[in-house]
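This follows on from our talk about sequence and fold. Please put the record directly below this note.
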Amino acid sequence: MKGLPIITAQRRDVTHSELDFMVNPDCPWLEGHFPGQPILPGVVQIGWAVHFACEIYGYDPGVHILEQVKFKRPIVPGKHLTLHLTPSADLHKLRYEYRDATTSYSSGSLHFGTAI
């Protein structure tokens, strides 16, 4: 996937992963969304979560269901965030959340086929 954020730190344990990054002001996904007040589109937020879930946990990239997707606050250029990824015990479902130290920006659940 083009236009991925540059991960500045990554933490993992047996229950979840955390990836720190900054939304680069030159990110191609910000162009035209919206002129004068760019924000990271929701579809890109989901796409990044899927990409990193597949990279870290070996999921097939086909997401079958999106649940409880919430875009709570706009993600703007220059914002430093952590993407939290928490797979279910059976590895067919993954919860994601974009947040900083005090605020949740967006979250949801992704249902995948089978894990590798």
Remarks:
- DSSP finds one helix and six strands in the chain.
- The chain has a mean pLDDT of 92.
